[in-house]
């Protein structure tokens, strides 16, 4: 399974354009991201990841912005949003 791309979707609490901008910035810098879309309106971040970029890495990256992640999905299946410290 590691040799294919995956779609990760996160429901993120973002209250303004600055919030979604912060998420946009960190995803733009993350290695292994094929494409991404951050929607303030839908309160979500959608990431198409190249093989090798795992869910947890993307989750941690979004959490680093200080935004609350409410839910996460991998290829449409719900995943835990707890990050192992």
TrEMBL record:
InterPro entries attached to this UniProt entry: Copper_transport_ATOX1-like, Heavy-metal-associated_CS, HMA_dom, HMA_dom_sf
Q: Which UniProt keywords apply?
A: Chaperone, Copper, Copper transport, Ion transport, Metal-binding, Transport
Q: Name one GO biological process term.
A: copper ion transport
GO MF assignments: copper chaperone activity; metal ion binding
| Matches recorded under SUPFAM superfamilies | HMA, heavy metal-associated domain
Q: Where does the source fall among the domains of life?
A: Eukaryota
Coiled-coil positions are none
The UniProt record lists the HMA domain at 5-70
Per the UniProt record, one Pfam family is HMA
Q: Identify its protein family.
A: Belongs to the ATX1 family.
State what protein this is by name.
HMA domain-containing protein
* Gene source species: Daldinia eschscholtzii
